[in-house]
Amino acid sequence: MNTNGIKPASIGLFLLVMASLPLAGQGKSGNEIVAEMDRRLNFDECRMTIRIKDVKAGGKLRQMRAKVEYSKGIGTRIEFEEPARDRGKRILMSGSSMWMSSPSVSKPVRLSGKDTFMGTSFTNDDVMNLDKSDDYDSVIAAGDEGGWNVVMTARSPSLPYSRIEARIGPDYLPLGMTYFARSGKKSKSVTFSDVKSFGGRLRPSVMTIVDLMKPGDSSSVTFEDISEERVERSRLSPSGLES
């Protein structure tokens, strides 16, 4: 018999709310959490070496290695070293615009962030656009001692995904994300793993994406090294893409 007038369902709801207080009590908004995630994942200016592995449903495997130069608010430049047939190809993102140059093409070609990145399961935006907080409005859907569930809504229709549902740990590092297409369907799932120290900063060294619309297709980016250092500004502009 319930003598105190409190219904069992109310007790359950109270316990659920109490369980979420340690994180919710920090008072951070969804936008602040995503901005802090970006800060912990990326240096303001750095050079990186990445290895990309792409697997198709039929079992075909392709691997690439590239150097990356990044400056927050300025641009991202990727130059491929492997395989031999892709050596010398360069991709630049400056603002919301992208270009690719190739030894076999006389002038850089404009790209779209929604297009596939070198035939992988990533889009160009997935690889080139390293920050999320400047492109998405984020709200907290749930929070507990293990982190936050954050819903990120695109600010521009030019972005490849209308919505991202992210699980972010209490250390502000991403654990997983689900990307949604403009149709509202789940497009891709992403996991982050193998946390390592780069320049004294802990962050996942592997990002794996599974294409939910093409069963069996997946790609991963492994960050082999990241060093915080100044990048020559001229190399992050379209006019310097050939240098």
Number of strands: 13
The helix tally amounts to 3
- Architecture per CATH nomenclature, i.e. the level-2 architecture: Clam
Q: Looking at CATH, which topology would you report?
A: outer membrane lipoprotein receptor (LolB), chain A
Unreliable segments of 5+ consecutive residues: 6-25
| Cα distance spanning the termini | 80 Å
Radius of gyration: 20 Å
Question: For the record, what CATH class applies?
Answer: Mainly Beta
Number of domains: 1
Quaternary class: single chain
CATH superfamily: Lipoprotein localisation LolA/LolB/LppX
Helix content: 10-25%
**How are the strands ordered across the major sheet?**
6-5-4-3-2-1-13-12-11-10-9-8-7
The ordered string of helix (H) and strand (E) elements is: HHEEEEEEHEEEEEEE
* Sheet with most strands: 13 strands, antiparallel
Structural class estimated from helices and strands: mainly beta
What does this entry look like structurally?
- It is a single chain.
- This protein is mostly beta strands and 243 residues long.
- It has a single domain, classed as Lipoprotein localisation LolA/LolB/LppX (outer membrane lipoprotein receptor (LolB), chain A, Clam), CATH 2.50.20.10.
- The chain has helices at 8-24, 30-41, 124-128; strands spanning 45-55, 61-71, 75-82, 90-94, 97-101, 109-111, 136-144, 147-154, 163-168, 174-180, 186-198, 201-211, 218-228.
- It has a 13-stranded antiparallel β-sheet.
- Mean pLDDT is 89; it is low at 6-25.
Outline of this structure?
Helix content is 14%, strand content 44%.
Q: Secondary structure elements and their pairing?
A:
Blueprint: H1 8-24, H2 30-41, E1 45-55, E2 61-71, E3 75-82, E4 90-94, E5 97-101, E6 109-111, H3 124-128, E7 136-144, E8 147-154, E9 163-168, E10 174-180, E11 186-198, E12 201-211, E13 218-228
Antiparallel strand pairs: 1-2, 1-13, 2-3, 3-4, 4-5, 5-6, 7-8, 8-9, 9-10, 10-11, 11-12, 12-13
